[in-house]
Specification:
It contains 14 helices and 21 strands. By secondary structure, the protein is an alpha/beta fold. The structure holds cytidine-5'-monophosphate (C5P). Its cofactor is FMN; Mg(2+).
Amino acid sequence: MTALSGKRILLVIGGGIAAYKSLDLIRRLRERGASVRCILTQGAQHFITPMAASALSGQRTHTDLFDREDEADIGHIKLARDADLVVVAPATANLMAKMAGGHADELASTVLLATTLPILIAPAMNVRMWLHPATRRNLTTLQEDGVHVVGPNEGAMAEAEVGPGRMAEPLEIAAAVERLLAPSGPLAGKHVIVTSGPTHEPIDPVRYIANRSSGRQGHAIAKAASEAGARVTLISGPVDLPDPRGVTTVHVESAREMLEAVERALPADIGIFAAAVADWRVADAGGQKIKKKEGTLPNLSLAENPDILATVSHLPQNRPALMVGFAAETENVIEHARQKLAKKGCDLIVANDVSPATGVMGGESNTVHLVTRSGIETWPTLSKTEVAERLVAHVGALIGGTEP
Ligand code: C5P
């Protein structure tokens, strides 16, 4: 038995120079036991031939939506169903745009619209195309639609430019396929939602209320959960950190957006809510910048934000089996954490002292206490990565039913 034994992959090859690497990807996937069937777009056929894809996959390669033989034989709807995973590699800017917009004007985009299978894309394009706001928007839309993404990598590009846009290497794509189809590790098969970072609450279109959270702890948890085999959705407020690899990251600004994104990401097995969500927002944040007026100060009235942790922990349906909250306190850390556990209805509170002397906010390390209904466990001072790894192991043991 190999990792992908018996798994069927539909590989959509887009029209970019990275298409030549997709031929190697076919081999890598087959080495792992998967069967691979290919669709080549018109563009892809400028770089590689259907014959090469068929020779390497050992199966007929599909290119045309209106091919009479293909439609009589398998048909595009059957193509969209007869697999365990659709991989799009290279996913060009154009293919991503079509997917995000729901276009269906040739075989590849039609199959991608018709499929209900999980989809993994490996974007590849010029760095400026990758960084263009249109591609950013399309990527966000695709991630919100549940599409998984691997890469792109940074490095030299075909046009002698350097930057993000190189397709992930075939081995990296094969590893991402394994994570999706044959996850291993203590959280294999689990969906984990992590919230991270601060929220920004607008005062007007240019000003906002924020806090000092860096998102480091939450992002480290998302990465550790993914490495433990979980499918992870990270809902992140504005942070200065890269999206963790292998994790579906949804970017939000305000607490209300964060709650909406969490609700869209449900159902999940585990929720780990590490975001420093603003408790209040400005009640009537206007569409225009507040003007400075001589002798008067603006009066900001505040409204309470939804408590995301409490809301999700109290859901009558769809509540993750294990809900973990954080408590950043500057005094009476344990006592406040106990109260929070009861008030928010979660199963575990990770409490830490964030008084300025500790340097936790924005810093690299953390001293935490795990507070549950049955007791308290205090960990030594660890790096945020170590806290994340230990927390994920602890959560894995709790959900797996064995004592950590
Ligand atoms: O009440 P406090 O902000 O200290 O609670 C912290 C915990 O509650 C964290 O897990 C945080 O992510 C979560 N929280 C939330 N929504 C809020 C406020 C806090 O999810 N509006």
